[in-house]
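Good morning N.,

You mentioned wanting to compare the apo and holo forms, so I went ahead and generated the holo version with S-adenosylmethionine. This is what I fed in:
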Amino acid sequence: MATVRRFFVQSIARETVLSGDEYSHAKNVLRLQEGDEVVLLDGSGAEYDAVVSHVGKGEVLCSVVGQRPSDKECRANVRLLVGALKGDKTELVVQKATELGVSHICVFSSRFCSAYMNENKLQRLQKVAREAAKQCLRATVPAVEYMDFSAALASCRDYENKIFACEFAQKSETDLKKIAGSCALVVGSEGGFSQEEAEEARAAGFAWVSLGRRILRAETAAIALTSAVMFSLGEWQ
Ligand code: SAM
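and this is what came out, ligand included:
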């Protein structure tokens, strides 16, 4: 059975227009024709069945014929904070974290971070998240933000579980197997954390956790911790 193509739009109307990147993808890559079925997503968590009614210059028009809630979203809010990584490693983390179901991704700068971020890179990360969300059939795209370490910690104030992957933790201060509810996860960049940063996280209510006896690459640590938490939250059933 052919996959029904999915498109994110700003808002849904009975006649919804695909424009910009979504238009280019629909018209030039997928070569959609009038009568083709599509699914439209407005980021609310709903899926809208629609039919292409007109393919024009610069826009594709879709008629909405039905609506249903998505069953693909994670039941708990999971926010991943990751230090900015070199090369395309941050993109890898954004892609995998989106597939795993996180609701927010915050890339942060910290003392031993050597990668930088700018508006173009941030937009690229948002695009990676959108493409990953479509590919894994999600109905929402995690928001990707960039901020400094202290602001990133403060952004997790309301989360029920605050977990800090600490490469120098002797033992874990919380049992990942027993967590339930919303989770904020922190993983450092290639350079790791300073003792002061780890203490700052603890003072902000984060529990240090060990990811085992081996030191993982930052991207491995981010994906592994997110996977473990999703498993504990029952998302793999
Ligand atoms: N430069 C650091 C060092 O030499 O110890 C290693 C940093 S590691 C590549 C990047 C991040 O992954 C760490 O800041 C931490 O968040 C996480 N991490 C990697 N291995 C870990 C482990 N065994 N336990 C807890 N966190 C780990």
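The first helix runs from residue 20 to 29.

Happy to go through it together on a call whenever suits you.

Best,
F.
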